[in-house]
Amino acid sequence: NAGVTQTPKFQVLKTGQSMTLQCAQDMNHEYMSWYRQDPGMGLRLIHYSVGAGITDQGEVPNGYNVSRSTTEDFPLRLLSAAPSQTSVYFCASSREGGRANVLTFGAGSRLTVL
Amino acid sequence: GEDVEQSLFLSVREGDSSVINCTYTDSSSTYLYWYKQEPGAGLQLLTYIFSNMDMKQDQRLTVLLNKKDKHLSLRIADTQTGDSAIYFCAETRYGGSQGNLIFGKGTKLSVKP
Questions:
Q1: What percent of chain A has pLDDT over 70?
Q2: Nearest by Cα to A49 from A39, A64, A63
Q3: How far apart are CA B85 and CA A26, in angstroms?
Q4: Which residue in chain A is spatially nearest to B99 when comparing CA positions?
C-alpha cells in the first residue's frame, strides 16, 4: 500500500498565485486532515474531514479551502498565496476520527511563497 | 498558555536513557500520543496511551502518564544515533463525533556517539 501520498513535494509560488496541494490515501480511511509545520510552532491543524462530503475548520483555516468529494482524496487549495503561508504541509489520515485517532502522515509538501 | 508543552531540545550520549517530557492542559483528553519525525520526513507514530493507564512499555520505549499533574513522558532506553529526531507529544481534543490531534512544538533529540 502507498499509504498517504502528497504532491508536489516542493513548490515555489509568487504572492497572489493560487495552487492546490494534493493528498490521496489508499487505506479507505474516513478521517483526513491537513497540518502546517513552522519552525518553533509545531503542527497546527488547518482543516479536517470525517468523511466524503464533510469538512470542517481547524485552528488556522484562513486562506485555505478544502473539499472531500471522495474518500480517497482531500486537496488543500491556496486561493491567493501569501508569504505567511510559506511552510511545510502535512496531510494525515486515520481509519476514523474519534477518541483514539491514530494518524498516518504523508511525507510533506514544502511550499515557499515569494 | 499552550495546550501541549514540551522542551525544545535534549542532548544525550549514545547508550544513555533519554526522557522527553510533555505537559497538557485539557483534562478531558482521553488519548495521548508520541510521534517521531526524522529529517525531511513525515511523522511516524511511536506509541499512544489511553488516559486510564499509568504506564505503557514497548521494547525500548516507556510511556508514563501522571493524570493529576497532566504530565506525559517518553523514556527511550539505550538511546542510539538512529533515535536522533524530533519527538512530538499530542493529545486528542474530542468534540462532537471526531477527535483532532493537538501537537506540542516538538523536542529535538540529539544523540552523541
A1: 96
A2: A64
A3: 27
A4: A98
User: What's residue B94's pLDDT?
Assistant: 65
DSSP A106: -
Q: Show the cell assigned to A1.
A: 500500500
Q: What residues of chain B lie within 8 A of the CB of A41, using their CB?
A: 105
- The residue among B43, B50, B89 with the most chain A CBs within 10 A of its CB, best to mutate, is B43
Q: For B98, which of A4, A92, A97 is closest by C-beta distance?
A: A97
- Contact between A43 and B42 under an 8 Å Cβ cutoff? The reply is no
Per CB distance under 8 Å, which residues of A are interface residues toward B?
4, 31, 33, 35, 40-45, 48, 50, 58, 90, 92, 97-108
Q: Which of A33, A92, A101 minimises the CB distance to B92?
A: A101
Predicted pLDDT of residue B1: 42
Segments in chain B below pLDDT 70:
1-2, 27, 29, 94-98
Average pLDDT score, chain A: 93
Residues whose CB is less than 8 angstroms from the CB of residue A76 and which lie 6 or more positions away in sequence, other chains included: A20, A21, A23, A34, A46, A47, A64, A65, A66, A89, A91
